[in-house]
Amino acid sequence: MIAAAVLLAVFVAIPLRSRGYLLQLGTDTLSAVTLAYGWNLIGGFAGYFSFGQVSFYGLGAYATALLVLRAHMPWYFAALVSGLVGAAAALLLGRIMLRLRGILFALGMLGLARILEVIFNNWHYAGASVGLSLPAVLTPVAVYVGMGLLALISFCITAYFVYSGFGLDVMSLNEDEDAALSVGVPTTRVKVIAFILSGALPAVAGGLTAWNHSYIDPTSAFDPGVDLLTVVYVMFGGIGTLWGPLIGAVVLMIVGEEFLVYFPNLELALYGIVVIATVLAFPGGLVGLANRFGWLMRPIILAPKGLPAGAPPERAPAHGTQPVLEVRDLTVRFGGLTAVDRVSLSVARGETVCIIGANGAGKTTFFNAITGVVQPTSGEILYFGQPISHLPTFRRAQRGMARSFQIPRLMPSFTVWENVLLASRHGRQSHRVVEHTAWVLHTMGFAGMWRDPVSRLTPGFQRQLEFARVLALSPELVMLDEVMAGMTREEQEQVRGVIRRLPEFGIAGVACVEHVIAAVADLCDRMVVLDFGRKIAEGPSAEVLKDPVVVRAYLGEPI
Asked: CA geometry: angle at 374 spanning 415 and 380, to 5°?
C-alpha cells in the first residue's frame, strides 16, 4: 500500500511540476509499463514467450491514426477502438498461433510483426513507407493522463490474474498444459482470453503514443527493439509477477535516461551490463530478490486463513444401470507401430478393474486414448452409455472422468492447496470449491502441509497429491496410472485405504494400471493383462495371476 501511495503521488506531481522533459519521460515510462504488463499476461503467466507483441502496438497506432485522419474520430475514442482492433487481431490469431509452443511461437510472432511491417510499407492509404503526420489535438498532459489510466488498468488486470481462480488457470498453462487439461481446464479458451488482453493493452498504448510523437511509420510502429525492451523490462523486474513489470520498466527507463545524459557513448553497453548482471545474480528479477526477504510474495490463491474442515462431496443422481465405462475394440497406431490392438474393456458400477503388463505393453497408451490425450485409430469409447470419442480431454474431466499419470504431473510452482484447488474449480463441486478442496486435503492427509510448495514434497507425497487432485474433480470414474509406484509400505497403505473408501465418495468405478501387483491384487474385482498391445487374459485376480500365459509373458512365476 505504501508503494502504491508513493507511485500515485509521483504520477500526480509530474504534470503539476513539469510541462517538458519530465512529462515526456513520464509518458514514455507509463507506455513501457503498459507494454510490459501486456507481454507479462501471455509471456509471464501463460508461458507463451512472444517476440511479436509489437504487432498489436503497431496495429493500434495505425488504427488510431487512420480513424483520426480519415474518419475524424476523437483521439481518446479512436485509441479505445484501436484496443478493440488489437483484441480482434489477437482473437483471430490466437486459435492459430497458440497451437505453437516455445521457440516456434516466439518465431511465429516475430514473423507476424515483419509481415505487418511489409504490408504497411506498401499500403498507400496508410502512408506507405513515408508514414503519417498527425495533428496536435491533445495536450501532452492529456496524453500523460490517458497513458497513466491505461497503465493502471494493466496493473489491475494483472492483479486479477494473481489473486483469482482464472489466474490460476492461466498459470497452469505455464506449468503443464496437458496436466491442466486432465483436471478440466479449458486451456484453449483460457490462453486465447489471456492473448486477447495482451493484445488490447499495447494496441491502446500504440494509439496514444502515435499522437504523442505526432508521426508514425512502419519502421517505428513495428520496431523489434520495442519487443526486446519490453521483454527486458519484465525479466529485470520479475516475470509472471504483479510488481515485476512496473519495477522493471520504471527502473530501466530511469537508468537508461541517466546513462544517456552522463555516458552518451556508452549508454547501450552500460545498460546491457546492468540488465545481464541483475538477471544472472537474481534469476527471478528484482521481485525474486525481494521474495528472499519475504516481500512482494505471490499470495496463495483463494486460500483461507486456516484450513476449514470441509465436507464430503454432494452425490450426483445415478445414471441408470449402464456400465461406467465401455471400451470396444480400441486400436491406437503410431505410424507403423500398433501400441494398442483391438482391446475391449468394461467397468461396471462399483467395480475396480486393474490392468497389468510389462513395460511397453500399451497400458498407459490405452489410458491416454480413453481420456483423449491421444486419438484412437479405431474403436468406440462409451461413458455411462454415451460416446465420448469426440470430446476433448477437459470435457471428459469435467464430466467426471479423472486420471493420474505414470510420472506425477503436478504444478511445480503451486502450493499443495493450489494444485488441489485447480481441479476443484473445474470438477463437479465447483460451486463449493474452497470447502471441497479442504475436504480432499484432510482425506488425503495433507492438512498439516496444505500451504507448502510442491517442491518440498517427497516423491511418495507427490503421488499422493496427484491422487488428491483426482479426488478434487469429484469424479465418477477414477483412472490411476501406477499411483503406488515408488511409495513406502506406509504410503501404499494410506492410498489403499483411500481406494477402498472411493464408493463412499460417490465414485462409481475405478480402473488402475499398476506394477506393484501385491498392493492391488486384493483391491480389484477383475484383472486385465496386456502384452504388446493385446489383451491376453482377463478375470478374477486369483485366476489371472496363476494363468500360465500371464506367468510366461509377464510374471515369471505365479503369485
From this structure: 120
Question: Is residue 258 domain-resident?
Answer: no
Q: What is the mean pLDDT of residues 258-267?
A: 85
Residue 112 forms part of a structural domain: yes
How many whole angstroms separate alpha carbon 283 and alpha carbon 289? 9
Kindly report the pTM of this predicted structure. 0.93
Helix 489-501 to helix 459-472 angle (10° resolution) is 10
Q: What is the pLDDT of residues 414-441, one digit of tens each?
A: 999 999 999 999 998 888 999 999 999 9
Contact 332, 365 (CB under 8 A): yes
Provide the number of structural domains found in the chain.
Answer: 2
**Between the CA of residue 523 and those of 195, 210, 401, 498, 516, what are the distances in Å?**
47, 69, 20, 11, 12
Each residue's pLDDT tens digit, 215-224: 899 999 999 9
**Final residue of a structural domain among 169, 198, 222:** 222
Question: Considering only CA atoms, which of 521, 528, 409 is closest in space to residue 467?
Answer: 409
The C-alpha angle with vertex 446 and arms to 445 and 447, in degrees rounded to 5, equals 100
**Which residues constitute the domain of residue 375?**
325-555
Chain centroid to CA 393: 15
Whether 312 is covered by a domain: the verdict is no
Q: What is the pLDDT of residue 530?
A: 95
* Boundary of a domain, candidates 207, 222, 237: 222
